[in-house]
Amino acid sequence: MVHQPVRQQSFAPWNDPEARPLIRIEGVSKSFGTFVAVDKVDLDIYPGEFFSLLGASGCGKTTLLRMLAGFETPSAGKIFIDGVDMARIPPYERPVNMMFQSYALFPHMTVAENVAFGLKQDGLPKPVIRDKVRAALELVQMGPFAQRKPAQLSGGQRQRVALARCLAKEPKVLLLDEPLAALDKKLREQTQLELVNIQDRVGITFVMVTHDQEEAMTMSARIGVMRAGLIEQVGTPVEVYEYPATSFVADFIGTANMFGGVVTADAASHVVVRSPELERDLSIAHSGTLPVGAPVTVMVRPEKMTLSRDEPAADWNWVQGTVSDIAYLGDISIYHVALASGRRVQVSQTNLRHGSEQRLTWDDVVYAAWHPANALVLTQ
Q: What is the distance between the terminal CA atoms of the chain, rounded to a whole angstrom?
């Protein structure tokens, strides 16, 4: 699921105590009447970072983006960009540019004229505008289309023109509001990596809002997962997927099997959780000291489970059930296993050979098992 470019994997200024964030959000809240859209958010974003705000509709991510742009005023808190308090800085004077979901291209202007519009508004000399427009269009591979009108372009091409228009002004921060939402699935997947590569070349800090978790995982150096105006977790794609901080993040990012239980033992290498739902004890590799009797949730990703007709030799971490549904997706098959308690468990298996999807079928009695290191204990 995680397909990060190599550069983003090695890029981690947030781990450097000496690194200075380009964007600092301190205790920012935004209310509309009695409704709190953003609630006391603290966040640092670093120069050259591709940062995504991820969440469902209404979680506050777009409101936070609009406050960065200056289109909304915080009800409380401060926003700093490159060390400057933005409180009294109007949108047109901020070192940011925003790429809207609709792209907002002028239909009566050519591609080149659209890209040049903001530069003309800034009063730059014509030779400078010409050079910047040419460079921006070459960057997004739209140079040959400079004299076309937006109506003569595909959705993907219009998206590139909108990006070129933003990049031509060389902002310190580029804000992207669901930038790929209008593209079809295949083009969207292709454009994701192209956009990351462009960001890598220009070195501008990108802050993107999206509800698409795979998009955020593919494109971002870090992700801020939002819920009800709060940021539940900030981390790299690997961190939020493999080590979610809360049950909400575990359930929102990817697919997770989650079992409620109570800690019954805390050994040196693992904890033991009694799960009434599964009617057995679960062993989970240690991730921190937990008091006996503490209520917890055990999370296991479907791909971290194995599925077999044979009862596992180990005494821990397996359940017996019946295959109730199968989804064949080509590279993987997803199995839904119904337990005697009525609970369902989801297991995904890679199809490594032709016909492997026929290995297990409906109504088979199977055992779903997982290693203690492949589960996580959540306390929130």
A: 24
- Please state the three-class secondary structure of 68-91 as a single string: HHCCCCCCEEEEEECCEECCCCCH
Domain ranges of the chain: 6-95+171-250, 255-378
Is the pTM value of this prediction over 0.85?
Answer: yes
Which tens digit of pLDDT belongs to each residue from 253-284? 999 999 999 999 988 888 999 999 888 899 99
User: Residues 208, 50: contact at Cβ < 8 Å?
Assistant: yes
Tell me which residue has tokens 């930038």.
179
Question: Can you tell me which residue has the tokens 């890209």?
Answer: 115
C-alpha span between 193 and 77 (Å, rounded):
34
Taking the C-alpha atoms of residue 300 and residue 242, their distance in angstroms, rounded to an integer, is 10
CA dist., res. 79 & res. 239, Å (int): 26
The confidence score (pLDDT) of residue 18 equals 93
- What is the token pair recorded at 248? 């909400």
User: What distances in angstroms separate CA 221 from CA 4, 290, 300, one per listed residue?
Assistant: 8, 31, 24
Task: Tell me the Cα Rg of the chain.
Answer: 25
- Report the sign of the C-alpha dihedral through residues 110, 112, 113, 115, in that order: positive
CATH number listed for the domain at residues 255-378: 2.40.50.100
- Would you call 149 helix, strand, or coil by DSSP? coil
Q: What is the pLDDT of residues 293-336, one digit of tens each?
A: 999 999 999 999 999 999 998 777 999 999 999 999 888 999 99
**What is the rounded distance in angstroms from the CA atom of residue 323 to the CA atom of residue 11?**
43
Nearest Cα neighbor of 333 from 306, 298, 299 is 306
Helix, strand or coil, per DSSP, at residue 22? coil
| Arch. (CATH architecture) of 6-95+171-250 | 3-Layer(aba) Sandwich (3.40)
